[in-house]
Amino acid sequence: MVRTRNTRQRQLIIAELRGTKSHPTAEWIYQRVKAKMPRISLGTVYRNLAVLKEQKLIQELPRVGSQSRYDGNPEPHYHFVCLNCGSVEDIETPFMEKLTGEVAKKLTEHDVQGYFAEFFGLCPQCNTK
Ligand SMILES: [Zn+2]
Ligand SMILES: [Zn+2]
Question: By the 8 A CB rule, do 83 and 98 touch?
């Protein structure tokens, strides 16, 4: 029975994450999941996020802002972070992905396990103020 409950928790968390493009915090996910599963705790949400990350079903964006943000898209891609409002957007850059892949390939004696790139500045809304 415990396993069934865990599976349902995880499915709800994934559904919330995949249903938004805002790259939310664990706290945000917790509030959404709690509306459907009132007895869930924030600690449980964190534990499930860690498991989902381990299974490579989601990504954690550790350096974006003060709190970890989560991404329902597990494929490598780039983000733009607004320094003013903290919004996080996906950036479509096939060229960059190819380039970083090439760099990783050149580092043949290194065990490259991933890469991290981040664009930051002001989002269009903040830029007009
Ligand atoms: Zn902004
Ligand atoms: Zn993303």
Answer: no
Distance 78 CA to ligand 2 centre (A): 7
pLDDT tens-place string over residues 27-63: 999 999 999 999 999 999 999 999 999 999 999 987 6
By the 8 A CB rule, do 77 and 70 touch? no
Q: Which ligand is nearest to the CA of 70?
A: 2
pTM score: 0.79
Alpha carbon separation from 27 to 15, 19, 38, 46, 55 (Å, rounded): 15, 16, 14, 9, 21
CA neighbor of 60 nearest in space, from 52, 71, 51 = 71
Domains within the chain, CATH numbers bracketed: 1-71 (1.10.10.10), 76-129 (3.30.1490.190)
